[in-house]
Amino acid sequence: MSINRVVISGNLTRDPELRSTASGMPVLGFGVAVNDRRRNQQTGEWEDYPNFIDCTMFGARAEAVSRFLNKGSKVAIEGKLRYSQWERDGQRRSKIEVIVDEIEFLSARNSSAAPAQMAQPSMAAAPAPAAAPVVDASVYDEDIPF
After folding, report:
1. Is 144 inside any structural domain?
2. pLDDT (tens digit per residue) in 37-67
């Protein structure tokens, strides 16, 4: 048995690029930077080392998602790894990318990294949260039958 699942969280390194296959299927490509923390052997201090991960998303959701992402957006992604190799100018090239199955937007809706259509509604229009009921715990201790 083998498992090919990846979960990453990071920031987009570039604006997403929406393309289409020859058959017309939307394909969204973008990069995500994920930090790896390691201790520097000389100084003993912790340092962040970025990993740059290429991500690809297919289908109608890719087209919809493209409208809400831009460089700097924070996202969480779940998907699978895909290894590709090809030849260009006589040299063999290869890459590993994440094929995105699920994506969650983690940036605040009103942050400068998010487009205007995602602006957060005003608080005046939002209903007030219900207050949590106050419960006296001693009442429940007497009612327990065991």
Report:
1. no
2. 999 999 999 999 999 999 999 999 999 999 9
| Residue 140 is assigned to a structural domain of this protein | no
Query: What does the pLDDT look like over 121-130, one tens digit per residue?
Result: 333 444 444 4
Give me the domain span that covers residue 23.
6-121
Secondary structure E strands in 26-90: 26-39, 46-58, 74-88
For residue 30, what are the CA distances in angstroms to 15, 41, 62, 123?
A: 7, 33, 11, 33
CATH number of the domain that 60 lies in? 2.40.50.140
CA distance 27 to 41: 42
Query: Is residue 13, in this structure, part of any structural domain at all?
Result: yes
Q: Is 63 helix (H, G, I), strand (E, B) or coil?
A: helix
Q: Is 52 inside any structural domain?
A: yes
d(CA 97, CA 146): 57
DSSP 8-class letter at 44: -
In terms of DSSP bridges, do strands 91-105 and 46-58 run parallel, antiparallel, or are they unpaired? parallel
Domain count along the chain: 1
